[in-house]
Amino acid sequence: MNKLLMLICAAAVVFATQARTLTLKSAGSSSSPVSFTSASSWNEGYAPQPGDKIVISQANAYIGSANEEFDIGTAGLTVELRNNTTRCYVKFKGDGHLTFTTSPTITSYTLELRKACTHTGGTTIGGRVQLLTYVSNPLGTGDVTVDFTASTPRFNVSNSGATIPNNIVITGTPNARSICTDNKATFNGTITGNGGTLRIDDTYDVMTLNGAVTVPDGETITLRVNSSDSASVLVANGALNGNLAIEGVTYGSNSGRPVKLASAVCSGTKVSVNATGTLQLTSANNLNPASTVTVAAGGKINIDSGVVVRIKSLVVGGEAVAAGLYKSSSLSSVITGSGRLFVAGADADVFTWTGADAGNPTLWTSAANWDRNAVPGDGATAVFAKTATVSVPSGSTVAIGENGLTIATFAAVTCNVPFSGSGALSVIGGGNGANLAIKIASIHTGGTTISGYGQIHVYVSNPLGTGTITIDPVNGGEPLLYGKTYGVAIPNAVVVRGTPGARVISASDSMSVNGVVTGESAGFRLDVEFGTVTFNGDILVPDGKAITLRGRSSTESGEIVANGALNGDLSVEGATSGYVSRPVRLGANAICSGTNVTVNATGILQLQSAVNLRGDATVRVADGGKVAIDSGVRVVVGSFLTNGVSLAHGIYNASTLPGVLTGAGRLCVGPEPGLVIFVR
Q1: Backbone angles phi, psi at 10, to 5 degrees
Q2: Which residue from 125, 179, 499, 578 puts its CA 20 to 30 A from 453's CA?
């Protein structure tokens, strides 16, 4: 009898502790939710305990009375949905694991969590559960697993301003979005995908990812703003460890809402933007410089002001984009915003300066100072992403081979490297303070090209060897050859390509340019900011185009001097805001072949010879502009207009035309008096 009683008791203990399945008796209502912890709420007549499986078959169930808590212990709890929609007001606590799932035959059912939880054992969202959370901290503090192993669950944040602190793990191979929001939400934990593409969707308002997002090698993180809300944006602040795909709306009219990489850094080398997607870049470090970025027709890359992003290659609408520096005006089909995109080129052999050689942190020829632990060779592109000083051992040079050398500057670089060899040097810059300051003469013969926003600051004579200097404002850039030290001389011929939007040669101190300066397609501006810039060679532009010379200075000194032929029309400009107007002086041997000469409202044109202007030239001087004629010089022109009004034929000087003419010379408008014309 005693043995029988013991067996009965043991069986009762086993029955009491083994996992049970409890089925909800009724759905309840919003005004009268079903009590979770009451035995009367369950068909089996038992109150739930740790380790149980809870089955909810009712549609629109309301479960959990006011402030009801349930301790899932260490054994945890499983909740299985067999109908749509369950609203849960229970505060789960304890050390166990919480699992949400559906029966295998269910298409997709929604579970709404309406209370914050404190359980620490983690949570699994499986089956076809669409988990909607309406509070911060809805899933305690443990890791959250979204399990795609055999189904398609979803973790959706629906409450505005909710914060999710958990690390999230996506298992299996997701074939749909795994995390999404339909209201403002912040995810502070890491998000890890264990296989396939990881899709994260923002379907309304602002979604912020503060933790790192990681997928296996070669896999892709897909970030999509799929919203009809005009304020929607998906913000990534953590590392993006994988390739990246950006997608836009699949419905509604608000295509173009961005995925914004704030402090995020994407380590992958494949980035894509679909036809409705917009990728917003806020930092030069958002993308891997080795990236290939593919943008479908209609897709956009928005780059913040002052930001220059470096990538390996760019493909737009299936077509590769040439290497170069681009901005919204030069690649308007893709780029928006005020920033710039540097494309190194798919075949570029890129080396990035690190300066990591502790013993020789400036030595160009030290492999340890380059990211690939090798020195750039023939045809290489040397990238300087941060401020640097580079040098070579005394008496040494860096030889440029037949395939040339490209230097891409995205910061201020002091160059104490003399270049030699027969190859061409190309300097491309990102602007915003980036420049290559050359402080030692070079002897290379293959010429130099300055493009993009490249600036070469010259501190010595003969800084760029003996070949032609080409200044190429390709893609809307503003390249500049800029003298920085008194008395430097540029012996090279200079060619200006394209249609520059700004000055191309200037100086902050006295400098001479001794070779011929040629504009290939349009007028261009030669400038001075301080000191005197002298052009001793001819200045040439195509027929009908103008040479613009601007005299301005931060002090009452300096001027532009032209001593060679000016084969084109002439436009003289003076000070812009913050500067003082200084003369543009045509030397004794300067001859302007153009018939149109203009002087703007702040310009000063100084004439030193009777031959400076053509006798049939038309001179237009805006109100405030000046023409200075040296003593003993009489200049003859065909017509002369001041503030749009033509002067009568005659001779004028500073006394008879005050406010316009200065100096002791004279101006003759029309045929000189006393000239007799015989007609037979």
Answers
A1: -65, -40
A2: 578
